[in-house]
């Protein structure tokens, strides 16, 4: 019984241990996951008949240039897709655009981290 108590206490303390800081590459990967999630959300908006002008208006409020450029590109590409393509299998269309823009972001050269809040 004491062993179970000790193991439980050790595991609890390990959970409270300070996490190691992320490397710049890990930070970029996290940022790119957020960009992919934003792409999925933009596709959802398009599928729900949100007008392109409203999406652009919202994107223009983003202060960080890197993020604003990614979001603007996503909006242009998502709104250029035919409605039949995005409304056929809505979940697949959202996942496809999420994956596409996550991978595109990861492949983008970068020399600084954008100032962003996760999407």
Measured by DSSP, the beta-strand proportion falls in under 5%
Structural category is mainly alpha
Tally the structural domains: 1
- The helix/strand order is HHHHHH
Largest sheet report: none
Q: Count of DSSP helices?
A: 6
**Average pLDDT:** 85
Give the beta-strand count: 0
Helix share, percent:
over 70%
Morphology call: globular
- Uncertain runs with pLDDT below 50, 5 residues or more? none
Head-to-tail CA distance between termini? 45 Å
Rg computed from alpha carbons, rounded to a whole number of angstroms = 20 Å
What structural keywords apply?
119 residues, mainly alpha, globular, Lipoprotein
Structure description:
It comes from Acinetobacter towneri. The protein is mainly alpha-helical and 119 residues long. It is 73% helix and 0% strand. It has 6 helices and no strands. Helix 2 (24-47) packs parallel to helix 4 (65-80) and helix 3 (52-59) runs antiparallel to helix 4. The longest helix is centred in the first third of the chain and has 24 residues, at 24-47.
Q: What is the gist of this entry?
A:
It is built from six helices and no strands.
Helix and strand arrangement:
Elements: H1 2-16, H2 24-47, H3 52-59, H4 65-80, H5 83-88, H6 90-107
Helix pairs in contact: 2-4, 2-6, 3-4
């Amino acid at each position: 019984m004491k062993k179970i108590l000790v193991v439980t206490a050790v595991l609890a303390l390990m959970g409270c241990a300070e996490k190691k800081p992320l490397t710049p590459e890990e930070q970029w990967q996290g940022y790119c996951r957020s960009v992919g999630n934003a792409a999925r959300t933009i596709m959802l908006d398009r599928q729900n008949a949100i007008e392109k002008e409203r999406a652009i208006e919202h994107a223009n409020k983003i202060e960080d240039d890197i993020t604003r450029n990614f979001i603007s590109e996503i909006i242009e590409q998502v709104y250029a897709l035919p409605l039949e393509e995005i409304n056929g299998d809505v979940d697949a269309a959202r996942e496809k655009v999420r994956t596409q823009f996550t991978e595109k972001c990861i492949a983008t050269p970068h020399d600084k981290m954008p100032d962003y809040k996760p999407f």
